[in-house]
């Protein structure tokens, strides 16, 4: 389970309540509030995590998996 791109909670511990697909990739969220925030402006959150990536094992796997995209 990944991190929430909006509030950056580690969902491996919290559990995910919602998910959203954007440009063929699935993102997970702690709540529907975070999901709605992401869907309103996905680029903002994706840019933010690209600039300040969460330092989790999940993030490293995610970067590797999405490098070709
Ligand atoms: Zn959240």
Layout of helices and strands:
Elements: H1 11-14, E1 18-22, E2 25-29, H2 32-40, H3 42-51, H4 57-66
Antiparallel strand pairs: 1-2
Helix pairs in contact: 2-3
Bound molecules: zinc ion.
Q: Explain this structure to me?
A:
Helix 2 packs across helix 3. The protein has one domain. 48% of the residues lie in helices and 14% in strands. The mean pLDDT is 85. Strands 1-2 form a two-stranded antiparallel sheet. It has 69 residues and is of the alpha+beta class. The chain is globular. It binds zinc ion. The site of zinc ion has 8 residues, from loops.
Short description:
The chain is α+β, with helices and mostly antiparallel strands and 69 residues long.
Count of beta strands: 2
Amino-to-carboxy terminus distance = 20 Å
Low-confidence stretches: none
Counted by DSSP, the helix tally is 4
Q: From the alpha carbons, calculate the radius of gyration and give it in angstroms.
A: 11 Å
Largest sheet: 2 strands, antiparallel
Mean pLDDT equals 85
Strand order of the largest sheet: 1-2
Shape: globular
Helix percentage: 40-55%
| Strand proportion | 5-15%
Question: Number of folding domains?
Answer: 1
Bound molecules: zinc ion
Q: Based on the structure, what is the oligomeric state of the protein chains? A: single chain
Give descriptors for this structure.
single chain, 69 residues, alpha+beta, two-stranded antiparallel ribbon, 4 helices, globular, binds zinc ion
